[in-house]
Amino acid sequence: MVTAYICESRVGRCFGVLANADIILVCTYGENGADPELLLYKKRI
Predict the structure, then answer these.
(1) Which of 5, 6, 18, 41 has the highest Cβ tally under 10 A?
(2) For residue 41, which phi and psi values (nearest 5 degrees)?
(3) Could you tell me if 5 and 15 are in contact, meaning their C-beta atoms sit under 8 angstroms apart?
(4) What is the pLDDT of residues 5-36, one digit of tens each?
């Protein structure tokens, strides 16, 4: 499993990426996890 977190202080948003051989998930969220938004969830079939 690969996990990455990137925070962009200029826009006040963070991006999270979680992936393995079966799924990829990309999300964005504000400070302290506020206002989370799912950008992509893709499951391998």
Answers:
(1) 18
(2) -135, 115
(3) yes
(4) 999 888 889 999 999 999 999 999 998 889 99
